[in-house]
Amino acid sequence: MTSSTYFLSSQLWLTLFIVLIAVFQLAIAADSGTEDKIKRICRQMEEFEFCSQTFHQNLKGGSADYIGLTEIANNQVYTKASSTLVYIEQLLRSVSDPTTRKALLVCENGYYAVNEAFVEGIRWFSQKYYKEMLNVERRAPSAQASCTSIFTTTPPPKQNPLFQINREMRILIAMAIVSGSSIS
């Protein structure tokens, strides 16, 4: 082995080692109490891994109580709803089929309602009125579900361009409501 080959091989191993350490640190970023809370919430979701990953990616300082986890979930719902509204507007500009257009308008209304519920919910949350927060946020699941059902009930059934977004949003809304319900 030449010295340049040995050097490159050593660099590759060092880089791999650093990447593995970084990944390991992300995996253990939450303290045990926070990790227990995340698991308690995420076990109630349709996809544990998406829920857990969302909390861990947004956890600051490795520790959070239910209030902190609720803040993460609320912010994720608001961000996803806002970006989805922009995406729906882009789709509406490019769709000419009237049935798909009508379905996308239903989705736009549904996501607008989700967005409004979480704007109000976040306002209540910031004032520490958690019951009021939950009351408005509990409107969001049915508003979001309208975007799923419209594509299956409108004849002929259309492929939903928001299928993955709807799945993630459904989980995020549930995370916000479950974590918010856990605040004592």
List keywords for this structure.
184 residues, Butyryl-CoA Dehydrogenase, subunit A, domain 3
How far apart the termini lie comes to 64 Å
What is the CATH topology assignment of the largest domain?
Butyryl-CoA Dehydrogenase, subunit A, domain 3
The CATH superfamily of the largest domain appears as: Invertase/pectin methylesterase inhibitor family protein
Number of beta-strand segments: 0
Report mean pLDDT, rounded to a whole number: 88
What spatial form do the alpha-carbon principal axes imply?
A: elongated
How many domain modules?
2
Provide the helix percentage. over 70%
Main sheet attributes: strand count, strand direction, barrel closure: none
The stretches of 5 or more residues where confidence is low (pLDDT under 50) are: none
State Rg: 21 Å
Structural class by secondary-structure content: mainly alpha
What is the CATH domain class of the largest domain? Mainly Alpha
Count every helix, treating DSSP H or I runs of 4 or more residues as helices: 8
Topology order in helix (H) and strand (E) letters: HHHHHHHH
**Strand share of the residues?**
under 5%
CATH architecture of the largest domain: Up-down Bundle
InterPro entries: Invertase/methylesterase_inhib, PCW_Enzyme_Inhibitor, Pectinesterase_inhib_dom, PMEI_plant
Pfam families: PMEI (PF04043)
Family: Belongs to the PMEI family.
GO molecular function: pectinesterase inhibitor activity
